[in-house]
Amino acid sequence: MKTLHSKAFRRRAGQLLATASVVAAALAFANVASAQTLTIESWRNDDADVWNTKIIPAFNKTHPNIKVQFKADPPTEYNAALNARLAGGTAGDLITCRPFDASLDLFKKGNLIAVNDVKGLENFSDVAKSAWSTDDGRTTFCMPMASVIHGFVYNKEIFDELKLTPPKTVAEFHAVLDKIKADGKYTPIAMGTADQWEAATMGFQNIGVNYWKGEEGRKALIEGKQKFTDKPYVDAFKELASWAPYMGDGYKAQKYPDTQNLFTLGRAAIYPAGSWDVPIFRKQADFEFDAFAPPVVNAGDKCYISDHTDIAIGINAKSQNMEAAKTFLSWVASPEFAEIYANELPGFFPLSKAKVDVKDPVAAKFVGWRGTCESSIRNSYQILSRGTPNLENELWNVSAQVMNGTMKPEEAAKKAEDGLASWYEPHKK
Amino acid sequence: MTDLTAPSVQSTDVVPARSRFPLHIAVFLAPALAIYTLFSIYPLIDTIRLSLYAGDETGARSFVGLQNFQTLLSDPNWSGQFWNALRNNLVFFAIHMVVQNGIGLGLAMLLSLPRLTGGSVYRTLIFLPTMLSVVIIGFIWQLILNPLWGIAPSLLKAVGLGSFFGPWLGQESTALLTVSLISVWQFVGIPMMLIYAALLNIPDDLLDAATVDGAGPFSVFWFVRLPLILPTLGVVSILTFVANFNAFDLIYAVKGALAGPNFSTDILGTFFYRTFFGFQLQVGSPTMGAAVATAMLVIILIGVLIYLFGVQRRLQRHTF
C-alpha cells in the first residue's frame, strides 16, 4: 500500500513540475516580448503626473518604439529601496541620481555605467557635471537634469497690507520680521524644525552662502583652509538662531507639510524656500506670491545663491535595454527636454547650456539670480559627507538644535567641526 | 492562550517497538522546519556571518573578525549612538511595561466584572487600534498633537489648560515619552486580551471559596487571581520586551530615520536602519548594519534568557 501511494505521489509531482515549467517558460517569453520597456527609478513621486502625461509622451513622439515607465518612491525611502533593488537585481533600467557620493558609490560598486560616450553630454558644463563625476572629473556616470535654487518666497498680499518691501540686507530682513510680528496677525516665518532637514537646507544652506561667499568658502572647507568654527559659519548659525521668535507656535513639532500649509493658507508671510516649492504653491495658494534672494550681510555686498545640482539620470549596469536607455539619456540632454522640464516643473532648473525660457514668473525670478549672484552648491555634499559621523546628518541635527534653542551657535559649529575633524585629514590639523 | 509548557499528552495505547526511523515525525516536522529554516534561521545565521565582514567602496567584502563590533562599542562616533539608542530603547520598554501592561491589566479586570454590560463593545474598541497600520496611527497622532491645527491644543484651551500644551513631539525632553505613549495607546489591547482570557480561565469556585472565607475584593485579586495569572503576565512581559527591542516603524513614521530632535527618539531599530540602508548622504553599510542587528539579537537573547531561567522556571502553573 505504501508503494502504491508513493507512486501516485510521484506522478502527481511530475504533473506539477510540468505545469510549473510551462508557466516559467511563458513568463520568460513575456519578458522577451516587453524588452523595449524602460523603467525609471525616481524619488520624485510628486512629479509622476508630469512624467506620465508630458515628458514620456513627448519622448514617444520621436521614439515610438521605446516604452518608458516612471516608478517613484517617496524621497526619504528612495536610497534604501533603490539599493535593495539593485542588490536583488530587480532595479529599473534608468536610475535617477542623487548628487555626489550616493551616486558615486553606486558607480564604484558597478551599478551604474559611465555615460561619457552618450551623445548630448557635451551640452553640460563641468560644474553641472561635477555632482556626477569621479573625483578626478574624468568619468561622468549620470546625465545632469536639473538644479534647485534656494531663496525666500513671500506672500505679496500680506506685504502690501503691511506696506513692506522685500528686504535686501539682513538688517532690512529683521526689520520686516519685526513689523510682521508687531502686527500680530501673521506668522512672520513659516518654518519648522521637526523634520530637521528644513533647518539645515532651507535655513543654514539657504542663507549661509552669503556668509561663506559661496564656492570660495565651500572649496576652502574641502581644502581644510576654513573650519566650521570660523566666523562665517558661526554667524550663519547665529542668524538662524535669531529666527526662532518669528516662527509659528510649536515650530519644534512642525513638519515640512505643516510649513507648506501654513504658508499656502495665507497664515505666514515669509517662507524660506527651495525652488521646487514653486509649482506646489502655484497649485495650492490662492494669493499672489513672489520671491526674494537670501539677504546679504551689508548693503552692496556681492550676493550668493545656493544653486544646487540636485537631479540626474543614469543607466543601470544590469539593464537589458542598454541601447534604448542611451537613446533616452541623449534625449534628456536635448533642449527639447530642458524646455518641457523647466516649464512643467518650474523650480527645477535645467543644467544644460541651452537657453530655456522659464514661463512661471516666480520660478523665472529664482533662475534670474543666476545672472546677478554667484551660484554655489551645498557645502556638505562634495567629499565632506563621506565619513562617520556624516556631516550632512550632523548639520541637520545642529541646525535644528540651534533653532530650538537647545544649542548655542558656537556649540553647533564646534560639533560640526569636531565630527569632520575626526575622520577628514585636511581638518585634523 | 496556548500553554507552551503543558505536559505532553499521555497516550494509553502501547506503542509497538520500532527498529526503523520514525518517518512520520520527520514528515510532520518538515514543512514547518523547512519554512522556518529558509525564512528565519538561515537569514539569522547569514546576518551573523555578514557582521564579521567589511566592504570596501567597490562592494568587495573581506573577513575582519570582530572588528565591526569593536568599532560599534569603542569608536565614540558609533558607540555614542549605540548606547544612546539602547538607553532610549530601555526607556521605551519601561514605559510599555508600566503603562501599557498596567492599563492592560486594569482593563482586563474591568472587563471581567460579572455584571458588566457591553463588554464586547469595549473589548472591540480598545483592541481596534492594534489592527490599524502604524503609519495611520502615526499620522493621526501627529495631527492630534499638531501645535498649528491639532485638536489637542484647542481641547486643552477649551478646559483652561492651554498653557500646559507644548510641541511634545518636537522637544527633546518629551519626544520619546510621547512616542512611547502613542505606541502604548496602539498596543494596549494585546495585554488586555491575554490577561482577560487568563482571568476567565479561573474557576468561579475558587473566587467563591475565597469570598466565603472572608476575603474582600482586594484580597481576592491579590491572593487568588494575581498568582493564577502570573504565567500570563510573564508571557506578556516577554512579548513586550521582544516587540519593543524590535520596534522601528512608529518612530520612523513619526520622527523619521534621524529620530530627532537630537536623536532623543532614536532606538535600536532606527539606528540599525540608518546604518544598514544609509540616510540622505550617509551611505549604508550592510556589514556594519549586520553587526548592529547581531548586537540587537544578543540583547534580545539576554533578555529572553533572563526571563526563561530567572522567571519562567519559578512560575507554577495551575491546571483546573
Automatic annotation (TrEMBL), chain A:
The keyword Transport applies. Part of a binding-protein-dependent transport system for a sugar. Pfam families: SBP_bac_1. It is found in: Periplasm. Keywords: Periplasm, Signal, Sugar transport, Transport. Belongs to the bacterial solute-binding protein 1 family. It comes from Microvirga lupini. The lineage of its organism: Bacteria, Pseudomonadati, Pseudomonadota, Alphaproteobacteria, Hyphomicrobiales. The keyword Signal applies. Its main location: periplasm. SUPFAM superfamilies: Periplasmic binding protein-like II. Gene3D superfamilies: Periplasmic binding protein-like II. GO terms for cellular component: periplasmic space. One of its GO terms (biological process) is transmembrane transport. This is Probable sugar-binding periplasmic protein. Residues 1-35 form the signal peptide. PROSITE patterns: SBP_BACTERIAL_1 (PS01037).
UniProtKB/TrEMBL annotation, chain B:
Keywords: Cell membrane, Membrane, Transmembrane, Transmembrane helix, Transport. InterPro entries: ABC_transporter_permease, MetI-like, MetI-like_sf. Its main location: membrane. It comes from the Bacteria. It is a multi-pass membrane protein. It comes from Microvirga lupini. Belongs to the binding-protein-dependent transport system permease family. Residues 86-309 form the ABC transmembrane type-1 domain. Gene3D superfamilies: MetI-like. The chain crosses the membrane at residues 21-45, 90-113, 125-144, 150-169, 176-200, 220-245, 257-276, 288-310. It is found in: Cell membrane. This is Raffinose/stachyose/melibiose transport system permease protein. One of its GO terms (cellular component) is plasma membrane. PANTHER family: ABC TRANSPORTER PERMEASE PROTEIN (PTHR30193), INNER MEMBRANE ABC TRANSPORTER PERMEASE PROTEIN YCJO (PTHR30193:SF37). CDD domains: TM_PBP2 (cd06261). GO terms for biological process: transmembrane transport.
